[in-house]
Amino acid sequence: MRIRVKPVQKEHKEFVLKGDYIRLDDLLKNVSVVNTGGHAKIVIQEGEVKVNGEICTMRGKKLRRGDNAEYERIIYDVV
């Protein structure tokens, strides 16, 4: 018996960067996936967020144009 697993489709959304960089926790607040900085801190430290495809636990991680952050199967491309 073979089991087929369908890959989970991930949605891409763009985040327009206004300065040189944005901190990871600020990005999550700006795209409204968390309500507070405290909530952002928890999801980041629990390993629920990926930056450029790798789990990132640094809430102050600086994201620049060309980077992306993933949370709950949505990828936010920084442009």
Explain how this protein is built.
- The chain has 79 residues and is an alpha+beta fold.
- It has a single domain, classed as Structural Genomics Hypothetical 15.5 Kd Protein In mrcA-pckA Intergenic Region, Chain A, CATH 3.10.290.10.
- It has 2 helices and 7 strands; from the N terminus they run ββααβββββ.
- Strands 1-7-6-3-4 form a 5-stranded mixed β-sheet.
- A hairpin with a 2-residue loop joins strand 3 and strand 4.
- Helix 1 packs across helix 2 (37-45).
- The longest helix has 9 residues, at 37-45.
- The protein starts with 10 loop residues before the first strand and ends with a strand.
Question: How does the SSE layout of this entry go?
Answer:
Elements: E1 11-15, E2 22-23, H1 24-30, H2 37-45, E3 49-51, E4 54-55, E5 62-63, E6 68-71, E7 74-78
Parallel strand pairs: 1-7
Antiparallel strand pairs: 2-5, 3-4, 3-6, 6-7
Helix pairs in contact: 1-2
